[in-house]
Structures are given as structure tokens and as C-alpha cells.
Amino acid sequence: MSSLKALHAQGQAVWLDFVARGFVEKGDLARLVAEDGIRGVTSNPAIFEKAIAGSDEYDDAIRAALAQGDRSVIDLYESLAVVDIRKAADVLRPVFDETGGADGFVSLEVSPYLALDTEATVAEARRLWADVDRPNLMVKVPGTAPGVPAVRTLIGEGINVNVTLLFARRVYEEVAEAYIAGLEDLAARGGDVSKVASVASFFVSRIDTAVDALLAEKAAAANDPEEKSRIEELLGEIAIANAKLAYRSYKLMIEGDRWKALAAKGARPQRLLWASTGTKNKAYSDVLYVDELIGPDTVNTVPPATLDAFRDHGTPAATLERSVDEAEAALATLDRIGISLDAVTDQLVTEGVTLFADAADKLLAAVALKRATVLGDRMNRQTIAAEADLAKAVSAAAETWRANGTIRRLWAKDASVWTNADEAKWLGWLTSTADGRQKLADYQAFAADVKAAGFTDVLLLGMGGSSLGPEVLAETFGPQPGFPKLRILDSTDPAQVRATEAAVTLATTLIIVSSKSGSTTEPNVMLAYFFDRLKQTVGDRAGSHVVAVTDPGSSLEKVAQRDGFRRIFHGEPTIGGRYSVLSPFGLVPAAAAGIDVAAFLDSADVMVHACGPDVPPAANPGVQLGLLLGLAARAGRDKMTMLASPALADFGAWTEQLVAESTGKNGKAIIPVDGEPLASPSHYGSDRVFVDLRLVSDAASPHDAEIRALEQAGHPIVRIVLRDRAEIAQEFFRFEIATAVAGAVLGINPFDQPDVEASKIKTRELTAAFEAAGRLPAETPVASSGSFDVFTDPKNAEALRAMGADADPASWLKAHFSRVKPGDYVALLAYLCRSPAHVGTLQTMRLAVRARRKVATCVGFGPRFLHSTGQAYKGGPDTGVVLQITADDHPDLPIPGQSASFGIVKAAQARGDFGVLAERGRRALRIHIKTDVTAGLASLAAAVDKALS
Ligand SMILES: O=P(O)(O)OC[C@H]1O[C@](O)(CO)[C@@H](O)[C@@H]1O
Ligand SMILES: O=C[C@H](O)[C@H](O)COP(=O)(O)O
């Protein structure tokens, strides 16, 4: 008889502590079952890590799984593990059947990340039990304090449990008690207790490894040679002594009345399973932890090498109940010399959880990598180049995030990832795509309705998060055949409102008014205007031309109901505006414009999966980007400069809001720089990070050489490559995660916008003054010419006068720009129509500033930027030098039902914003164009150019 089979004759079952796809598929496991009488299999995260990460055995299965549709990394891993476990269970099924369910089990461990959460452990165990769907499965549950009650619950439900990570006899006794209590629960519910099996995995070798190290220290410190030798005698003895006493507890347990009552109902005892029985110390026998622990009604799960060794030279003799007194004496001596076994075993449980979590991290990172390889260009590729110090800081932070499970905590909506304020309430965007899928049929029906109604245009009215995402969709996807063209209006500038109206055919236009709060001034006044125009155009059918997207219960919803809007779509109140593009705020306009919402969500989900809670930081593109942006900002590189292929150019406008409004507060910020053309390294200071978003078809352009030059000059470069413009969906999610991560690195709440409110208040005060007096409060310029009036607050005025500003506006510009220093940014904030001509002139102006001052330049149109970068300009660091540009609106445009016109609202917004900048002590100057706006802006550009020289 093989020595292994002889163990069985002693009442001990040998299980194999190993599993791998090829090993099972090629029949190696079946051979061990047949030849050595192996009667079970155990696995753990470390075993799967070696099997999956360390081989290409699973690559075909990964490819096949992904061919059926992308999925999360944890799902992918589990699908592999579940197949292995099922296959192993099927190999062992004859043993299970022949022994009437006494043996023939295969164990699969619950996620080590859940080891400290009873409910999550129970839920996961139930799920695995159902997924594997084999009666000879044992779900492995850790014997941690929260794990023990989970054992009782699961046993009570008839689920086989292998309780793992047991080191202390006290804990083993609690587990044995939980098993009995679980069976009693099951019996009380009328369940069949004879159908449940359990083992208690009592770890052995790890105890010697830990205790031996302490013994060696004690021995080295002992002066008395006798004491020294007494200490040394304990080396390699404690783990076995501890196990022998655990077995004694087991024997006592089965003698108890509670157990006997259960046994009478056919219950099977929870066998002690010796785990961790591969010898770690090469000085010891390689079969030490088998030879010494042989006894009836036990299991020993051995790694393959130990199995081979025992087959070769193991001694199958009953040893477990030998020398129990000596075992007790050894433990007493250990105690006497001051080594606490309790402390060691407590520590080993903690370490055990960490070790398995570390293994799971490695495993999931490897699966994430394999997934990315299989997806190829279906997943937008991101590469980060950063100089050594920053790269080191990013990998150190990634390791800290990994060790602390921070990305899992982020996904679990744990506010302590940020500032422990109300962040948990603002994380609904994490699951936007899942929500979108649930409502897919509705979006599709809406798209069909819009198409069938024959609308030629869709005009979306909204600000910030309610408009910038849709704008990216409109610009990136372009018009879709058979569907109306999507346009956005996010301005109170009269000329802009008029130009937008002129661009659409009102009679066949569908208006989407988007506002989460429903109380934002701009969408409300824009709606008032267009609803009135619709009434004039289509009469009573005006309501059927309007769709509202708003959070439930908003004032806009009430208006929509009152005016009989065509549809009302509800937003999700746990999603802030700037994180809302994958929610109805993006999907409704997408559907109306004929964008394939299902394909859009599929694309977004590729990145949702890549950035999931299960993907460790080093393999998680969103976390990598966020850590880079956050750490670079902390090191002074706080200007995130967005570059993009022409087809993707509008994405920067959306990122601007996301990043600026999220990070720009408490004197900190990542300042987004969008639309600044790429230049040679000499144009930039050392405060930049470049993000380059390219279509693969544009990848080899001269642009690449220019980017390389920046990289060589030491600027951090993030390269993101899209195979197709439709893959922009992925970028929304990547940047949302990255922004949330960067917020955590900066130590701010990335979901509030405290300083936007400040300027809204000032604006309200001004419009109230207008309502009362019929005009805005008078202002006195600090300087005037025929073309311009110059305004600023007393503090700025004093500082600028001290620098030579006099009666000539040019002197103010000169003084103002002479305040710009390295590391600053200049923001040109124009409350004008965002016409191509004005954009062009402001671009000329910003390039002059960059060329002369070597600083980052931002261009914003008011009031649009107020809902975007405005937060950072007011709440971020005092590094902004602001030139506000206003003009008189000729002709102005009345707002139906209000005394204030569009021009007045916009003027109040500009002044309100300036007031807050001034209050915050920001370097700010306002130039008011008195002439024709376009010509006046051009002469301002010339004046700025002169002022810079
Ligand atoms: O969708 P709402 O409520 O109209 O808000 C529009 C925008 O205004 C802000 O609340 C503040 O600027 C943004 O965060 C938001 O995206
Ligand atoms: O169930 C088995 C255990 O997970 C395994 O035996 C642990 O062994 P180790 O201490 O060698 O990792």
C-alpha cells in the first residue's frame, strides 16, 4: 500500500493543497486520487495567484470569456477559478459519492478583502456556493473575529465550510462552537444536518516560522547555557504541540452532549484539517508536519512537494495523540520564557489576511494585464512618462493605496478616502453605466421617438456638467444620419443666444433643458426665452418640443409638468453635475442625437472595468492617472495641459470643469489648461503636466516628435490613444476616477464647489439691486479711453498704481501683466459671444502671454466658465492673474417675464465673479470694451501684446 494510502488507514484523509488548470485537465489530479488516495483539494488566493499569474495556461480561457463580452477583472478571475474548482470537484465526485459525502471536497476561498466583514463574507460565500454549484464544494471562510459568526450562518444554511487561517486553539474552539450552533440552527429549521460538512483548517508551519524567530532571539540573549539549551529545544516543536492540543479540544468537543445530540441526527464532526504543512525551514524534515500529526478523523492538506516527499519517505504511524503531555509542557515553557503564543497567533491571523490579500492583489493585477492584452486597442491605451522622482512618488503612492485597499474603499464610498465630509453622498457616478443599461430600452425608445417626430435640431440648454458632456458628444460624434443635429447653448450673452437661435429651425427643434438643481439661473432664463419663441412658432405644441433632464422634485420638474413637456428624465441625486455625463445628463442628449447608447455604455464600461475596485493601483489606469496628477500638483506641476487630436478637441472643455471644480479649493488646485496650442519646451515653465489624447490614426504626426521633446525636457506626459473617436466614452470614466483619486491625494473634497456659490450670491445681490432700481449699481472706472474702461477693486488698484498704472488703460495692462511670475497662470475671462472670431483673438492674446511670460494660459467665456474653471480661479491657489473682459451688449435681449435682460444678467454675473476674486485678494483687472465688440477685442489683443513687451 502506498504510504499515502496508509494514512487513510490511520483515519486521516490526505488532501492536496494545490490546483491549476492544466493539472486538472491533463488528468494529474485524477491520477493522484487513484494512485495515492487523495481525497480532497484546497486552494487559496496564493495558489491561484501562482496558477494564473505565473503561467499562460489561462490565456485561452480569458480570450474566450472576453469574446463573449467584456467584464470586470474580478468576474474574469472568478470565472477561471470557478471552472477549476468545478473540474476538480468533478474529479473528486466519486470519492464524495463513495464515502456518502464524508470526503472528496474541493475548497474555494472567499475574497480575502472581506475577511473583516461578516455580512460581505456571508454574501460572497453564498454566491460562490451557487456559482460553483457542486455538493462537494467547501467555501473557505477565514477564522477572524468577523469570520466566526459567518461560519455559523453559512452552516445554518447548509453550506459546507472550510474555516481557514486558524492558529489559536481558543479561536478553533469558537469555530467548533459556531459549527455546532450552525447545525443546531439548520436542524431547528428542519434541514438535514447529515448533508453538511466542515473542516477547521489549523495552520501549522507558519507558527514554527514565527515562534522559532522569537526563540532564536531569546536563545541569543540567554546567559545561562542551560536556559539557552531549554529554549533551543523548543525550536520546531511549538506548531506541532499547539496542533496536538487543538486535537485534544476536538476530542472533548465530540464527547459533549450538544455534539452527541447532533451526531444522533447524522451530523458529521467538523474535522481538524492540518494546513500550512509544507516545511518552511529547510533544516527540518520535509515531512515533519505530516509525520507528527497523524490521527483519526483528521485531514492533512499538503502541497505537491510534501506529497511527493511523504510518498517517498513518510512514516504513516499514529502520532497525533502521542506525547500530548510533552506538548503541554513545551507550551508552558514557551510561556515561561516570555513568548506569548496568543500574541503570535493573533499576529499570524492578521498577517495571514494580509498575505492572502497581497496574493489577491498580485493575481488581480495579472488578470487585469491579461484582460488589457486581450482587449488590445478596444481599451484606450494609457502610458505615463515622468521623471524619476515623480515616477517614484507615484509608485510609492500606488503601493500605499494597494496596501490600504484605498481603491476598494473609494468604490465602497468611504468618505475617509477624502476629507470625511459628505463625499459618500456623491459617488453615484461609479455605477452610472449599470444604471444606464437598465434604462437602455427607454433611451432607445426616446431616440426612436425623436427620429420619428422629424426634429432637425436638438438644442440643449444647460451649464457646466449639464452641458459640457453633451457638447463633447455633439462635437466628437457629429451629426448622425436620420437624427437631428445636437447643439448646446450655455451662455447668457445676447449675441450668443441670438446666434444659436439663428442656427436652428425652431419649428423642428427639440429643446433639452438640463439642470440637476433646476434652479440654475442660465438654463432657466434660456428656457424662458426659447419656450416663448417656441410658443410664437408652434403655439400650443411648445411643450411637446421640450424635454427636461433634472433631479427628482426640482423646480424645473414642476415647470416641465406645468408646461406639458414631451418628456422628463430624472437625474441621479447622488451624482454631481460634473460627474454626470454617463448618467441621463449625457445619455438623453446622446439618444436624441442618434448616438448608439448601448455601444456608448459598452465603451465606457471597458474603462469602468479597468478602473474597478478589484484592479490594484499599479494596474488601474484611473488610479495611475489620478496619482500622477495629484502628486505632480503637490510637487508644483499643477497645470494639467490638455492636448488632443482635432476630432477629440472638445474633450478638454469637459475635463476642465471636472478637474478644476473638483480640485480647485482650499488654496489647492490642478489648473486645467485647455486649447493652448502645443509648442517647444522653451515655452513652458516647470509647472506642467501634459495629457495627450490621440486617435491612433493621428499617432505618427509631427505632433509626436514635439511631445517627445517635452518628455525629454522633463515634463510628465500622459499619452492616451483611442482607436476610434467613439471610444471617448472610456475617457469620461477614466478622468472621473482620476479626479477623485487626485482629490484624495490633495486632501480635498472633490465633490463640492464652495466658491461657485459665493459668486452666485454676489450675482443675486446685483440682480436684486437691478430689480429694485431698474439699473445695476454704478461703477467708476480706474482708467478710461475711447475704447476701454478699466475696472478693478481698491486693493488691486493701489498695487497697480504703485507699479505705474495711470490714466491710460494701457498702463494698467502693463502693470497687471508685470505681476505675472513663474508658476502663475493667466486667465483671460471674456463675457462675450463665443464666436470663432472671438475665440481666435483670445487665442492670439494667450499665445502672446505665454511667449513673453512663459506661463500657462487659460481662456474662458463667461458665464460658461463660472460653472467650470471658475471654482478653481476663486478657490484654488493664489497663482492666477485674471484679465476679465466685458462689453456692452448692443442690442440686448429681453428675457420674457423678467425685468432683467440677458445683458443685465451677464453683467451681474461678471461683476459678481469679479467681486469674489477681489475679495479673495486675487490679481484681477477688468477691461470693458466700449466699441464694437469684435473690433474692440482685436484692439485689446494688440494692447495686451504691447503691454507684455
Ligand atoms: O445642473 P445644474 O444644477 O443646473 O448645475 C450646473 C452647474 O452648476 C454648478 O453647480 C456650479 O457651477 C456645476 O457644478 C454644475 O455642473
Ligand atoms: O488550506 C490551505 C492553506 O491555505 C495552506 O495550507 C496554507 O499554507 P502555507 O502556510 O504554506 O501558505
Automatic annotation (TrEMBL):
Record's catalysed reaction(s): alpha-D-glucose 6-phosphate = beta-D-fructose 6-phosphate; D-sedoheptulose 7-phosphate + D-glyceraldehyde 3-phosphate = D-erythrose 4-phosphate + beta-D-fructose 6-phosphate
Listed pathway(s): Carbohydrate degradation; glycolysis; D-glyceraldehyde 3-phosphate and glycerone phosphate from D-glucose: step 2/4; Carbohydrate degradation; pentose phosphate pathway; D-glyceraldehyde 3-phosphate and beta-D-fructose 6-phosphate from D-ribose 5-phosphate and D-xylulose 5-phosphate (non-oxidative stage): step 2/3
Taxonomic lineage: Bacteria, Pseudomonadati, Pseudomonadota, Alphaproteobacteria, Hyphomicrobiales
UniProt family annotation: Belongs to the transaldolase family. Type 2 subfamily. Belongs to the GPI family.
UniProt subcellular location: Cytoplasm
Domain of life: Bacteria
HAMAP family (alphabetical): Transaldolase_2
Its job: Transaldolase is important for the balance of metabolites in the pentose-phosphate pathway.
First-listed, main subcellular location of the protein, grouped into a coarse class: cytoplasm
Organism the protein comes from: Rhodoplanes tepidamans
Catalytic residues, chain numbering: 140 (schiff-base intermediate with substrate)
Membrane-crossing residue ranges in chain numbering: none
Gene: tal
Keywords: Cytoplasm, Gluconeogenesis, Glycolysis, Isomerase, Pentose shunt, Schiff base, Transferase
Designated name of the protein: Transaldolase
